[in-house]
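Protein in question reproduced for absentees:

***
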Amino acid sequence: MFYSRGAVHDLTMLAPFGRYDEPIGILITTSFDVPPRESNHSRGSHHGGTSALRILEAVSKRMVEVERQLEELAFKGLIPRIAALLLREVEENEVKGLSHQDIAERLGVHRETATNALNELKTAGIIEIGRKHITVTDRTRLERAAGE
C-alpha cells in the first residue's frame, strides 16, 4: 500500500500462473481519493479511522472478486466462464461495449478461443452476437451453461 497526494493505492500481486506456456500473474489495483481533511492526518491515527475503513472495504471487495475469478479459472470450463461473465454484464438482455478481445482478456484466453466459445453459445440459440453487442436470447439456458 502506498500514498500519493491524498490518494491511497493498494497493489497486490498474486502468485503467477500460466495459460498454455505463457507465464502471467494477476495484478489487483485499488485506488481512491482520501478527503483533504483526512489526508493531512497521520495514517493509522484516530483521525484517519474512516480512511482505514474505506481501504479495508475496498480491499475486501476486491479480494472476494479475485477469489471468485480464481475459482472459475480452476474449476470451470471456458463456456461456463463466458456464460457467467455475460450474466454479470447483462442489462435488459443485452451486453454492450464488450468485444471478443475484451472478453478474452477478462478470462485469460486468446481471442480466437473466446470467439469459438461465443459461437457455440450462438449456435445453441442462447445469444446473438453483434459488434461490441451481445443479446441474450435465452437467459435460463445461459444460467444453466454458467452452472448457476
About this structure: The radius of gyration is 19 Å.
